Amino acid sequence: MPSIRQSAYPDLLPDFRNLAVMARVLVAVNALALAGAFYATPAIGAALERFVQAAAFLEPLLLVELMVLFGAASTLTRLPYLAGCLTVIVVVTLLAGMYHAAVRPIATQVMPSLGRTVVLAALAAAFLLAYFRLHTKAFSPALAEARLQALQARIRPHFLFNSLNAVLALIRRDPKRAERTLEDLADLFRTLMADVRQFVRLADEIALLERYAEIEQLRLGERLRISWELDAAPSDALLPPMVLQPLLENAIYHGVEPGTGVGDVLVRIERRGERVHATIENPHLEAGGQRSGNRMALDNIRERLALFFDAEARLETRIANGRYRVDIEIPYRRT
Amino acid sequence: MIRIFIADDETPARERLKELLQDIAADVPSVVAGEAPNGIEALEQLPASGAQVLLLDIRMPGMDGLELARHLSALDNAPAVVFVTAHDKHAIEAFELNALDYLLKPVRASRLAAALKKALASGAPRRENLVRAAAAPREYLSVAERNRIVLVPVRDIVFLRAEQKYVTVRTREREHLIEESLIALEREFSAPFIRIHRNCLVARSAIRGFERTGGGEEEAHWQVVLEGVVERLPVSRRQWPAVRELIAERP
């Protein structure tokens, strides 16, 4: 089954203000210098001596370079990736040239020629940029995963405790229904604790919605009326887990529970060409506080959709004719 | 026999409490004097039920539990209140701070028994504690009339005016007298109301305009013209700058 790991990540310049980045630059450049010294003089003693000489020339230059990059970091990150790389290389090379010119009159020992200094500086910069690019590539999925886990949908504690209370009320009078409700709750929490990175089949997500609705129905009785329009729902479509359930939960929490009368909720899922549309609609109650209260849940879902589908997914809300409505649109992908 | 009233919007939750009351009957004998699925109905039925203890859900449609309890305290023989909540961090903190009794859902029989005994001993909650525990302004003001509570929706109120001992609550249709302080009312309803005079708060949304009167011998002053009420109310010299600013802000 496809998962979030396959999405592409944009290339980014390394963060020149990050201490770890600076440390890596220092170590890498010195290692290169050491390797160069050993390459030029096979005898260990002479090679070390040569490295120390080179380091005396190299270290101040490196520090100056890092300081300049540190200062320019915010400007550099605003450039497109390739332009940023070229700028870094040019800046590093120019600084090396200027440093060479400044140090030459006061140098007490042999120095590399200007041409050599400039070429080596440019090569080292290009090599390090390539290294940082690979490094980011290797680690950013972990970042996305952490974000996903932080975004993992949560069921309101309010719902959990009220459901348990409703089950307790059933145990003596209707033990069969109490059993069914506990099974529904178990399914709901299993999904909630499942791997958030995997896509789920729409059919499974719909089954989950129905189990959840069953529990709410038990609590709210005839105050809750849900119309399901699922005939055109493509059951093989793939979507991130727990995208629809929080929306239905919001609809009930804000649109039905605070009302004294019957609350009509609509759930419609359908395929239109290569897109899957889902609509969840509930009465808009002034007392429900839906505009402020559920923004976080919506932002959460929106971000998860973006992590899975990038810009191909859409989530919109609107209030019209006393109804609050959420529309989701995702590309139709199947197993 | 303790007379108990149950207010909860979920039928299973009310059923569960009744079951538990039966379970603890040997220890705490009780009878259910009434039940209601929302705050408004509870307020209508409760005074006549003669309930001594109210088991009150916090999150209810129509009116939340804390506001309901505040209105009840206007009754002469107000019941003791035990709040019941599934999960509400803010409410629980407020209960703890203000010495209000509460139970967590699902409720345990032993806790229920203890809470009922304690509630009977301590009686109706103190009004100041309820006021301090409330997170939001009320949606209604209440007037106790003999054994009945009349609710006046705050959004129907045109102005509130302090008289000798009472505050007059003026809606488009009629007038009520309540025993509350204008200062406390101003603090609670600072968003929808504005003070125009030492003794008067006016609903911002009811203000239609201002008229200048007097002049000549008499000192000139401003009056508020209100929607739905013929009476004009004087704006004091002291409040005029603040009131005028409000008008300037309006689109």
What does this structure look like?
- The complex is a heterodimer of chains A (335) and B (251).
- With 335 residues, chain A is of the alpha+beta class.
- Chain A is 61% helix and 13% strand.
- Chain A has a five-stranded mixed beta sheet with strand order 2-4-5-7-6. Chain A has a two-stranded antiparallel ribbon with strand order 1-3.
- About 1% of the residues of chain A have low confidence.
- With 251 residues, chain B is an alpha/beta fold.
- Chain B is built from eight helices and 15 strands.
- A five-stranded parallel beta sheet of chain B has the order 2-1-3-4-5, sandwiched between helices.
- The longest helix of chain B is centred in the middle third of the chain and has 14 residues.
- The radius of gyration of chain B is 22 Å and the shape is elongated.
- The model of chain B has no long low-confidence stretch (mean pLDDT 90).
- The chains are: A alpha+beta (335), B alpha/beta (251).
- Chains A and B meet through helix 5 and helix 7 of A and helix 1 of B.
What tags apply to this protein structure?
heterodimer; A: 335 residues; two-stranded antiparallel sheet; B: alpha/beta; five-stranded parallel beta sheet; five-stranded antiparallel beta sheet; 8 helices; 15 strands
